[in-house]
Specification:
By secondary structure, the protein is mainly α. It folds into two domains: 1-172, Tetracycline Repressor, domain 2 (Orthogonal Bundle), CATH 1.10.357; 173-313. It has helices spanning 3-9, 18-24, 27-43, 50-74, 76-81, 97-118, 121-141, 149-153, 155-158, 160-169, 174-197, 201-205, 210-213, 216-236, 245-267, 270-275, 279-305. The chain is flat. The N and C termini lie far apart (52 Å).
Amino acid sequence: MSDASLNTTSTQTGDAGFGDYFALLKPRVMSLVVFTAFVGLFAAPVSVHPVIGFTAILFIAIGGGASGALNMWWDADIDQVMKRTQSRPIPSGRITGDEAFAFGMALSAIAVVMLWLATNLLAAAILAFTIFFYVVIYTMWLKRWTPQNIVIGGAAGAFPPMIGWAAATGSVSVESILMFTLIFMWTPPHFWALALFMKSDYANAGVPMLTVTHGRRATRVHILVYTILLAALAIGTAFTGIGGPVYLTVAVVLNAMFLKGAIVIWRRNEEQAAEDNYRTEKKFFALSLLYLFVHFGAIAIEAALVPFGLGGW
C-alpha cells in the first residue's frame, strides 16, 4: 500500500455507523453478486430446499461484501484521489483502514465456513478463491500494473453464478461456465465505457486503465471488439441447457441494442463526446447494467418454465 493509504489506516474516526459499514460492502455490486448467484442456483437441474438456497445466497452475498471491504481497505489512497470514490467510508475518515481490514477478513471467514456447512466444500472453495482473486490478484496486483486489469480481473465478478450452481449440484458444468463467461466478457466494455466519461480520474489516481495507457480511441475500438464477441456468446448461449425461446428473444434484442451502442461509441471522436458531456457513453454504461440483469433474468425464466414443460428447447 502507498503512504497515503497507510496514513488513512491510522486515522481515528469514532463516528462510523451501520450505514458506513454497509457501504464498505459495495451494496450495488453486491446486488449483482446476489442476483447472478441466485440464477446459478435456481437454474441448476436439481431441487434445493428454500432454506438451504436462502442460506447459500446469504453467505455468497456476505463473501462478495467482504471482498468489497478489503478492496476499499487496499485502495484507500486511490479512493482519496478519485472524485467518484472520495465519499467512501475510509477516505472520508468515518472508518479506519484497520477497521475495514478486520471487518472484511471476519466476513470472509464467516462466509466461506458457513457456505461449506450449509452446502458443500466445492461451493465454499470457489467462494474463497473468488475473494482471494478479487482482493489479491485484481486489487493488489493487476489493477495498478496492467491495462488488462479489468479484463483479467473481471473473473472475480463472474464467479457468483458458478458458486450458486455448485451450491446446488456440488459440481461445475458447461452451463455454469457459460454463465461465468457471459459476465467475464461483459465486464470490459462495461468498465471501459465508465472510464471514457470518468475522464482524468484514473490518470490522476495512477491506475493504468486502457484510456490512460492506450488512449480513448483505442478504448472505443476495444469496446466494439468485446461487444461483438459478447453478442456471439450471449446469443449462442440460447441454444444450450440454460437457454430457450425466451432467452433467445431477449438476447437478440438486447445484443442488437448493445452492439448498436458500441458502434456509435466507436464512430465518435473526443470532440463529439465532449460536446454532449459524454452522454452517449453514459447511456451505453447504463444499458450495460440492464444488459446483464435482463440476460440472467431470462435464464431464470427459462428455468422456471421447465417444470411446466415450457422451458428450453
